[in-house]
Amino acid sequence: TDNIVRFQTDRYDETPLIVQGPGAGPQVTAAGVFTDLLRLMS
Question: What residues make up the domain containing 7?
C-alpha cells in the first residue's frame, strides 16, 4: 500500500499539496514507531 501525506497550508489552501509513494510495510512501520517511542522515553 502507498503512504500519502497531504499538506494544507496558507499557500496550498484550496488545492493541498499531496505527496504519495510506496509504503515500507507494517513491520517496518511498527519498528520505526517503536524506535521513536524509545527515543522519546530516553
Answer: 2-41
Q: What is the predicted pLDDT for the residue at 34?
A: 96
Alpha carbons 22 and 40: distance in angstroms, whole number: 27
Question: pLDDT (tens digit, 9 = 90+) per residue, 7-16?
Answer: 999 999 999 9
SS3 5: strand
In the chain, how many domains are there? 1
Residues 6+ apart with CB under 8 A from 4: 18, 19, 20
What pTM did the predictor assign?
0.51
